[in-house]
Amino acid sequence: MMVTKESIEVIAQSIGISTLSPDVSAALAPDVEYRVREVMQEAIKCMRHARRTTLMAHDVDSALHFRNLEPTCGFTSSKTVRLKRAPEHRDLYFFDDKDVELKNVLEAPLLNAPPDASITSHWLAIDGIQPSIPQNSPVQAISDVKRSEYKDDGLPARHVLSKELQIYYDKVTEWALTLSGSTVFRQALTSLETDPGLHPLVPFFTCFIAEEIVRNMDNYPILLALMRLARSLLHNPHVHLEPYLHQLMPSIITCLIAKRLGKRLSDSHWDLRNFTAGTVAATCKRFGHVYHNLLPRVTRSLLHTFLDPTKALPQHYGAIQGMVALGLNVVRFVVLPNLEPYLLLLLPEMAHEKQKDGAKRHEAWLVYGVLMVAAGRCLYERLKTSQTLLSPPTRSVWKTDGKLTNPRQSKRKASSDNLTHQPPLKKIAAEGIMQMSSTQMQMGLSAVPQQSPLVGRDVSPRTSATLGTDVDNFLFPLFDYFGESMLMFTPKHELSFFL
Amino acid sequence: MDAERIDEFVMVYLKKKGFDSAAKDLQLALHHNNGSSFNSIDYPNDPELTKLIRSFSQSDDHPTQYRESYSKLRSWAYNSLDLYKHELLRVMYPVFIHCYMDLVGKGHTQEARAFFNSFRKDHEMINLRDLQKLEGVLTPSHLEEMEFARALRQSKVNIKICQYSYDLLLQYLHRTESTLMLGIINEHINFQVYSGQPISGSDDIEAVTIVGSFQEPANHINQKEIQWGLLEDSLDDRLEKGGLLSDSEKGQGESKDGDMDDSKKRSIEVGKQGSSLKKLKKDKAGSATAKVARQETSTVPLAPRVKAELALPVMSTDVEESMLEDLRNRVQLSSVAMPSVSFYTFVNTHNGLNCASISHDGSLVAGGFSDSSIKVWDMAKLGQAGSLQGENDTNDQIGGPNGRRNYTLLLGHSGPVYSATFSPPGDFVLSSSADTTIRLWSTKLNANLVCYKGHNYPVWDVQFSPFGHYFASCSHDRTARIWSMDRVQPLRIMAGHLSDVDCVQWHPNCNYIATGSSDKTVRLWDVQTGECVRIFIGHRSMVLSLAMSPDGRYMASGDEDGTIMMWDLSTARCITPLMGHNSCVWSLSYSGEGSLLASGSADCTVKLWDVTSSTKLTKAEEKNGNSNRLRSLRTFPTKSTPVHALRFSRRNLLFAAGALSKPES
C-alpha cells in the first residue's frame, strides 16, 4: 500500500479543500498511510478474535472504535466484500457497488427471516477412526490413512467390519428378503444410495445379491428388491464398485434375460426386466470408462440371447430392452441389421392362425412392441439430425403386405394399448421428448378426417417414401416392418413440414 | 595530510552529527591556538585514523550510502562459504531493518521506501509480519510512536555465531571500510561467539527472531523458581488415596531443576510400569485392585505436589463424587488408543459466531456471537428432543416467548462476545466482550448475576480456574487480570506484555496463569505475587491458544500461522514445534492423563499429537534431524467447519465445536 501525495490531493478536493499546499499533502501522505496500517492491525486482531480468516467491514469499525473514531458508513456487508480489478490497471481495485432503484427496494416483498442458529452433533471419530458418514468430509483422507497403515504393516489389509456396519448389513439384507415393499426398505435404499461409509460392505452385498438371485429365481418380489438394492449401490457415488462388477453384472443380466422370473402369472416380470435394463445401462454408463470392454461384453451377451431362436420370447424381450437401454447406437448397429430375419421368426408367433396359445401371442406382441419402440427411436434420432436432407420422394417403398397388415389391423388396438402401458413409452416421454407426444397429438388431429384405416394408408406411403430416401439403409425398411406406427416417431418438425 | 584538513573534517563531522556547541568550541579553540595545540597528536602518521575520520565526514547523510553498503554486504554474505552462509545471512535481517529505520529517522522517506522494497524479499519468508508492521513507519515520529520500532531501536539483537563466521564478517567490514555497516552492527547486534563448527540451520528459531527488548530480561526472569507440580489433596490425589504417596514426595524435590534426562527416564519408567501393570490389571477382577492399578498406570502420581497459594473453594460432595466417578471411568489414551471425537456443528450462524465453549462434561455448549448474545445449548436435552419428534413441544424450559427455540439466550453485553467459559461443574458461564466487561451467568437461572468492570478495552479471553471461583481475563489493554466471583474488582493485574494479551490459561495447580500475546510471546505469571515468572519466546506470530498439560509440567501454545509449540515450564524452552496446521490454531486441549494433545484449527481439521513421543524423543531427533511429522497421530478433516473449541471431558471423550462456513463460490 502506498498513499501518494496525489491521492491526498484528490481526497482533499473531494471534501472541498481546493487549495492544499504541496507541503501539507507531502507531510500528510506518510502519516495517513501509517494510520491506515495501524487501524488495519487492530482490525486484524478483531478478525482473529472473531475466529475468522476473512476481514470484514465491521472489524474495521471495531478497530476504529478502539481509537475513539467514527465508524465507516455504508460498508456493513454481511458477506465478504468483493473487489473488482479495474481494467488496464494491475493493482487498482474497486468495490463493485451496483446502483439500486429505491422504488424496487421499497416494493420488494419482505425477505424471509434467516434461519436461527442451531447446533448438530456427530461423531468426527470413533476410537480414532473417522466414520464415513455424510457429516464428515468424504475425501480420501480415510483411504489414505488406510493405505499408509497397510504400508506400515506390510500385511494384507485386514477387513474389519465395525459393529454398526454389521448391523446395517444384517438389517438391510433381512428387509430385502422379507419387507421388500415397506417404507423402511425404501429408506434403506435411500441410505444405500447416499451414505458415504458403505464401502466395506460392498463385497458382502454383491455376494448376497448373487446368491439370493440364484436361490430366488421364482420369487418375483425378492428379485425386484435385489435389483433395487443393486441399483442403489450403483448409484452411490462414494462406493467404489469397480472391483466387484464382475461379480455383480452376471446376476443383474440374469434378471434381464432369464427364462423365468417369478412363478405366478400375475408377477410382472416385464417390469422387472425393464427395471433391470435401466440398471444395466446405468452401470455401463458409470463404469464404461474404467472397463472399456464392459459395454461390448454386455452387448455381446445380450445379442447372443437375441439371436438365439431357441430362447423364449421373454428372454428376447429382456435382451432387446437391455440393448435399447444401452443406447441408440447399440440399437442401430446391433439390433436393426438383425431386424428382418428376426421379424420373420416373430411374425408367425404374433399371428392368430399360427400361434394358438394366447399367452405366447401376447408375449410376441410385447416383443414386437419393444422392437418397434427401439426402431422408432432410432428413426426419430436419425431424422432429427438429418433434417436438411429432406428430398422429394423418389420411389414408393410401401408394400402392402397382406400377411402383415391383416393381423396388424386386427390387433392394432390391442397392441397400441399394450404399448401405452409399457414403461418404455413412458420412459421416452419422461426423457423429455415432448415433441413425440405433441406429434401423437398432431397425428390424432390429422387423423380426424381419416377415421378409416384405408384413408390413413393413403397418406402413409407418401410420407414414408419422403423420409425413406435420406436415412440409413436399415431405416428404410422400418416402415416395411412396422407400418405407419413409425410415424409416431418422426419429429414434429418434419411432420409439420408435411402437414 | 595536513592538520588543518583534519580539523576541517572533524568540524564537518561534528556539525553533521548536530554537536553544534562542540563544533563551536572547536572553532574557538582553533581560532585561539591557530592549530598549534592540536597538532600535538600525530594525526598524519596514523593513516588508518585519517581514513576513518575521512569516511565519517564523507559517508554520512548520503541516503544512497545505506543502499550501497547494504547491497555490498548482502552480495558478500550470499557469496560466502556455504557452511557459514546461514550464520552470516542471519546478520542481514537486523542490519536491514536498522538501515531502514536509520533512513526513516533521518527523514529520507523516499529512499527508505525504495531501500525497503528492494530488499524486503530476502526477509519476507521468516519475518513477514514484522516487515508488514515496519513498512508503515515513514516518519521519525512514527519511530517514536510505534512500540515495536522503539523496542527494536533500543535493544540489541543476540546472534549466536561461530568464531570463524565472526572473523569473516569482521574482516570483510574492515577490508571494505564500510563503517556504516560496522556502526549498525556494533550498535544493534550483540554477537555471542562460540568456538567450533556452525550449528546447522534447524535450530534457528530463537536465533532469527528479533524479540525486541525482552530477550535479556527474559533470560533473567526465566531463572526464577516455579513449582509446576499438582496441588496437594486435589481430586487426582484423592482418587489415588493410599496410592503412591512416597513417589510423589520423592518427586517434589526435583520439581525446579527440570532436568530433561531425569524426566525422560521417568516417563520411560512409567511406560514400562504401565504395561506391566496393565497385565496385572487383567488378572485381577476385583474393583479395588483395578482401581489402584489404573492409578499407577497414569503418569499423574509422578508429578510433585505443591501447596495452593490461593484459598480454594470447597466443592460440594455431590459434585466431587461425580467428578471422582468420571475420573475412575476415564479411558486411558495413548498413541495406540485414540479417543472418540464428538463434533458439535453450529449452523446458520451467518458468520456471527465469535467463540464456542464446551462444558467439562460436554453436555453444555455456549456460543458467543457478534450480535452481543450468548446462546447456550443443552446437548442432552437436544438429543431427547430429537427422539421425541412429533410429540408436543417439550422444549419450553427455555422460558423464552418462542417455545421452539432450543437454546438459552443470554442477553446483556453491548458488544461482540469474544469468549465464554464454563465453571467446572457447569453451573456458571463467564463471558467477555468488546464492551470491556465480563459477565457471570447462571445456567440454572438463565440470568446474568454479576458484571465485572475493570478492563479499559475489549476483553479478548476469560477462563475459569480449574477449581472454579477464580477466573482470569485478558484484554486489548495489554493486561491480564485475576478475579474472584465475589468481588467486582480484580484481585491482581498482570502487566508486562508489549501488545494485546490474546489468550489466557490456568495452570492445573491454580498458582500460575499463562498468557499469550500479540507480541508473540507467552508469559507465565504467579497468581499470588502477580509477577511474571517465565517468558516463552519462539512464536513468529500472534499466540491464539494455550493449553496446560494435566501434570503441570508442559504447556502448548498455538499461533496464527498454525505452529504449535510445546514448552517445558521449568526451563522455558521449546521442546518441539509441532508443524502441520496451515492456518490459525484456535484451540488446544490435553487429554486427561496428558498423553495426547488435540488441536483445532481454521484449516478445518482436528489433529491429535503424541505428547509422550514429542517429549521423549527430543534428543534423538536433535541428532538425526528427524522431521516432526511423525508425532502427528491423526488428522480429522471436518466438512468445511473451522474448529473453534476443543475439550477433553473428564472421561477422555474429545468434544469439538465449530461453525459450518460454506465455502464461497
From TrEMBL, chain A:
Region (Disordered): 394-421
Cellular compartment(s): Nucleus
One Pfam family in the UniProt entry: TAF
Keyword DNA damage tagged: no
A GO-annotated cellular component: SAGA complex
Superkingdom of source: Eukaryota
Main location: nucleus
Lipid metabolism found in the keyword field: no
Keywords annotated in UniProt: Nucleus, Transcription, Transcription regulation
Swiss-Prot/TrEMBL GO biological process terms: RNA polymerase II preinitiation complex assembly
Domain TATA box binding protein associated factor (TAF) histone-like fold: 1-67
GO molecular function, one term: protein heterodimerization activity
PANTHER family the record matches: TRANSCRIPTION INITIATION FACTOR TFIID SUBUNIT 6
UniProt family annotation: Belongs to the TAF6 family.
Protein name: TATA box binding protein associated factor (TAF) histone-like fold domain-containing protein
Source organism per UniProt: Microthlaspi erraticum
Lineage: Eukaryota, Viridiplantae, Streptophyta, Embryophyta, Tracheophyta
TrEMBL record, chain B:
Main location: nucleus
Superkingdom of source: Eukaryota
The keyword Zinc-finger is assigned to this record: no
Keyword terms: Nucleus, Repeat, Transcription, Transcription regulation, WD repeat
Domain TFIID subunit TAF5 NTD2: residue ranges: 61-189
Pfam families: TFIID_NTD2, WD40
Protein localization: Nucleus
A biological process from GO: transcription initiation at RNA polymerase II promoter
Skewed-composition ranges (Basic and acidic residues): 241-269
WD repeat placement: 346-379, 410-442, 452-493, 494-535, 536-577, 578-619
Cytoplasm among keywords: no
Span list, region Disordered: 241-297
GO cellular component, one term: transcription factor TFIID complex
Gene3D superfamilies hit by this protein: TFIID subunit TAF5, NTD2 domain, YVTN repeat-like/Quinoprotein amine dehydrogenase
GO MF terms held by the record: RNA polymerase II general transcription initiation factor activity
PANTHER family reported for this sequence: CANNONBALL-RELATED (PTHR19879:SF1), TRANSCRIPTION INITIATION FACTOR TFIID (PTHR19879)
Name under which the protein is recorded: Transcription initiation factor TFIID subunit 5
